[in-house]
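Section 5: illustrative case.
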């Protein structure tokens, strides 16, 4: 995963681009009817039960739009919320509050939905050693916030992007000429370019698991679309040689069974690509 500094850099870029996109040359609705000197106060209201996420993000948005806005946080990221709860109050320039409103809500509604889904998945894994991972199946331009939401919900982040971990999937293996060639070329490339990156390799069957282990130097083997029995067998074969990850169309109905197979991680694109925004609103007080 990327560093905290890099994550903050990504979030700052998201905020700057989103405000550019939404505000453009000016919020003419507010400019037309609200005096520049007008001040006000608004509350962020919860309208649906779940796990709140994006409070820290909202604070960054308000500060970016107007560093004179004052934010009073009532509920922190990761806390359970119910209908009627007030997450925060923001006070200051009325024009500034309205300028920041939509980005705050868009971000927090999606982040809270992801955190809520992730939290539900982690509860299904209780009693096993398996941990839930996200994937790169994220909204373009919004990845940093979605991965932050996964962590807020109790999950763990997979690689952030293509540059912070090597992941050799089926196409890499086929294009490289096979597992041995793909892994050997990767090791040579990393050494030649002085890159200290972990290597994950996808296995499509038990023969490929054995081939990956024989090649060596792999951090984790991804068991892609394995059934329960083959997953158990793969875990036994791999033992302590490297970590294991199950992936491929795993959902609420199958998650716990895969965890019982003994894998270390289970990755799910559904955490980020199949959620419905949590209902939140920003209302003048």
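Designed sequence:
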């Amino acid at each position: 995963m990327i560093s905290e500094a890099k994550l903050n850099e990504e979030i700052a870029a998201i905020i700057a681009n989103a405000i550019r996109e939404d505000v453009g040359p000016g919020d003419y609705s507010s400019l037309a009817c609200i005096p520049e000197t007008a001040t006000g106060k608004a509350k962020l209201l919860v309208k649906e039960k779940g796990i709140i996420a994006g409070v820290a993000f909202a604070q960054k948005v308000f500060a970016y739009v107007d560093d004179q806005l004052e934010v009073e946080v009532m509920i922190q990221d990761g806390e359970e919320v119910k209908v009627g709860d007030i997450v925060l109050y923001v006070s200051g320039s009325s024009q500034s509050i309205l300028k920041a409103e939509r980005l705050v809500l868009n971000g927090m509604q999606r982040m809270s939905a992801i955190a809520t889904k992730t939290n539900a998945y982690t509860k299904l894994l209780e009693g096993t050693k398996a941990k839930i991972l996200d994937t790169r199946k994220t909204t373009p331009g919004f990845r940093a916030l979605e991965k932050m939401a996964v962590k807020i919900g109790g999950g763990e982040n997979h690689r952030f992007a293509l540059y912070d971990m090597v992941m050799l999937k089926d196409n890499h293996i086929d294009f490289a000429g096979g597992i041995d060639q793909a892994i050997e070329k990767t090791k040579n490339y990393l050494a030649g370019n002085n890159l200290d990156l972990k290597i994950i390799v996808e296995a499509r069957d038990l023969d490929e698991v054995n081939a990956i282990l024989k090649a060596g130097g792999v951090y984790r083997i991804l068991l892609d679309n394995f059934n329960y029995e083959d997953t158990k067998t793969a875990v036994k074969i791999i033992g302590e040689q490297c970590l294991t990850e199950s992936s491929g169309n795993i959902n609420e109905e199958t998650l716990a069974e895969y965890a019982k197979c003994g894998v270390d991680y289970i990755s799910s694109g559904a955490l980020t690509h199949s959620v419905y925004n949590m209902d939140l609103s920003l209302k003048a007080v």
